[in-house]
Amino acid sequence: MPPSRAADLNARNRQSQRDSRSRRKEYVKTLEEKLRALEAQGIRATQDVQKAARYVAAENTLLRSLLALKGVKESEIVHFIETARSASISKASEQSSSPITTAASRTSTPSGDDGQYTSCIAAARIVAGMRNNFSIRDIQAEFGCEPESECMVKNTSIFDALDK
């Protein structure tokens, strides 16, 4: 092979290696940026879940205080919760997958209500509190409820609304 051809091949090989290193460096940089974005997204999601948990815990404390003021003992509350949980677990496979009660199936108190429903107004207040500055009436409409109605929504629909 003539020396000029060998020199050309060596030059092309070095250029290809430089190009390859440059592409790899750019690819790694892109992956690192995606990683940072996903980490930030995960942090935001974790913060949202923690905020929701704090809100629910504070509301739970207030509700337990209200129950105590009404003369309900802590042991009765614990018994009720344990009973409701075991009933929920056994009925979970029987439940429909629809998160929100439809206008046709909505009643003032769903038959077989075992604590899996919340009044629409209470659900709307929870979601409004979590979203900050949302209209309770708009959120009620999201649930398919009319203002001032006495309808109930599934508790899972509250979490679905919080995910929006």
Give a quick set of tags describing it.
single chain; 2 domains
Describe the structure.
This protein has helices at 3-69, 74-91, 120-131, 136-143, 155-163, and strands at residues 117-119, 152-154. Helix 3 packs across helix 4 and helix 3 (120-131) runs parallel beside helix 5 (155-163). It is mostly helical and 164 residues long. 70% of the residues lie in helices and 4% in strands. It has two domains: 1-58; 98-164, no CATH class. It contains five helices and two strands, in the order H-H-E-H-H-E-H. Strands 1-2 form a two-stranded antiparallel sheet. The radius of gyration is 29 Å and the shape is elongated.
